[in-house]
Amino acid sequence: MAGGRRAADRVSARVDSGTAELVPDPDRARAFTLVLDGAPQSYVDLDEPTYLDFEYIRRMAIAVDLAAPPKRPLRALHLGGGALSLPRYLASTRPGSAQRVVEVDGALVEFVRRELPWPKDPLLRVRVADARAALESSRDGAYDLVVSDVFAGARTPAHLASVEFARQVARVLAPDGTYLVNLADGPPLAYAKGQVTTIRAALPHACLVADSTVLRGRRYGNLVVVAGHAEPPIPALSRRVAGDWFPGRVVYGGELDRFTHGAKVVDDASARPSTPPPASFWRH
Question: Are strands 143-148 and 205-210 parallel, antiparallel or unpaired?
Fold first, then answer.
């Protein structure tokens, strides 16, 4: 791809949500981690958009790979933009996909556009807006894929964590569509359990993907929900996730019921932002 940064010194800028910084990967010529106020948000390799460094993004990408036959374009809504890791991946692996990316931080969008430009593609549109407002303005059944990966200050906002929000996702999702959610939580995983319960109230066919230490509540980390109107491809998803160079597990069926036992559906009145990471988390 022509244009875009060369690996060199770090570059930073003030954006609406704080300070954005691009940290070069010393092992890859034009690869960078986008950091917001000290928290890594996205990783992009400008020369190889299918190279995904964050394990939770790789798990999402596996679910995207299995969402439809190879190369078939998808209609995708990405709630949360960052550096557009997954939209770039989808544009590369499924050319012709119509993608809408929603990011609330307009200054961040301009920073990424300038420093890490994405390929010129009339089907890839980036809009500055609130994620829920953009979702609520979408047509019924408009998307084959909806991705929710929204963080403000390392926490998912409360208005994106309710059953009312999940029902809007269910409304805009095609009958065979896939909903992907990035959750971040730590022991005792109360937030994650509540979110899985809440999502299943709107989209009952769901599974949870994470590594064993996070699932057992031993450390803070990312958990990916895969949900839809139809059952996710559990066997294929399990094989692919287990074969990753940072293996994960897929929790579904009775095991998922046990995981969420006692958790209540969260509505707009009771919704809270996600659990913040421990102070030492980004120093690892």
Answer: unpaired
Read off φ and ψ for residue 241, nearest 5 degrees: -65, -40
Domain count, the chain: 1
Q: Which residues are catalytic?
A: 149
CA 103-105-111 angle, 5° bins: 100
Measured CA to CA, the distance from residue 149 to residue 224 in angstroms comes to 10
In-domain check, residue 34: no
Determine which helix (DSSP H) or strand (DSSP E) holds 21, and give its type and residue range. strand 18-24
What's the CA gap between 215 and 225, in Å, rounded? 13
Domain limits for position 171: 53-276
Please check whether residue 19 lies inside any domain of the structure.
no
What would the two tokens of residue 37 be? 């106020």
Q: Three-state DSSP class for 245?
A: coil
Q: What secondary structure letter does DSSP report for 49? A: T
DSSP 31: E
Span 105-120, pLDDT tens digits: 999 999 999 999 998 9
CATH number, residue 106: 3.40.50.150
pLDDT tens digits, 126-142 = 999 999 999 999 999 99
